[in-house]
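sorry for the late reply, my laptop died twice this morning and i had to redo everyting from scratch. anyway the thing you sent over, i finally got around to it. pasting the sequence first so we're on the same page, its 286 residues, then the predicted structure underneath. double check i copied it right bc i was rushing
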Amino acid sequence: MDKIKFTEMPTEHEARLYLTTIGEEEMLPGGSCGPKVRPYYVLHYVTKGCGKFLVNGMTYHLQAGQGFFIAPDYETRYETDGDEPWRYIWVGAAGEEMKHLMHDIGLNQANPIFSCHQGERLIRCLHDMLEHRQLTLTDHYYRMSTLYRFIAILSEERQDHRSIESGNSYAADAMTYVRHHLHEHMSTADIAVTMGLNRSYLSSLFRSKTGMTLQKYIQTCRMTRAKYLLESTHLSVASIAESCGYEKGESLSRIFRRMYGIGPADYRKLFLASQQEKRRAAKNKK
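ok and here's the structure:
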């Protein structure tokens, strides 16, 4: 199956929307992807078999004709569900316009699952993008126009569901606020005041839409960021704690250990060791 990742950085004129990765895959029974945090948006569409998508402490069961949405900076995992292979296509994109497009069609991490009965059209869009993979201006414009067509198909399918899904907007707005203010002290009461809502109402609504308390969501997001920074930077635990909204490294360490069963410093050592082992294994295969 084709799997392509466009690694070139966007120039200023195209930074509002650009493709990051497109492809299709057949995952064998027992296969999985993640846990992983991505810096861009991804739309997956299932074409065969069944699978599970895990995000925000929730597990969604998927089958052919359904899809799932991944927003930047969320830790997600997906895996096969059953004895049959799981086949899906995906389109990844980034930029400010992609955020607005996903909002317009009602997709967010409080509401990440969608259905589409026009799967063949989505597959054709993907194949068109794969066939125009050259890094030329002509192929670039073709891929971008096809990306809009892909999103237009989803938009057409979701028109009848938007009024129902609009009840998720407060939960989605709260999630966005949390992700943008992780470095600050915040509580459910603080977020409710910012949104102009009653604290009890926001708490009840958020839990009904996501299956977890808002305070638990804040903690989960902070731990996800801490884990990502431990893996991708050389920042000290104290610096990471500050960037995640904790005054002291000890506070981060205590909650990190409670959630993952290991302290942050030891987690970093194990992660780096596993990466070195993977590089050695890959080198020996050559």
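The chain has eleven helices and ten strands.
thats about all i looked at so far, will dig more tmrw
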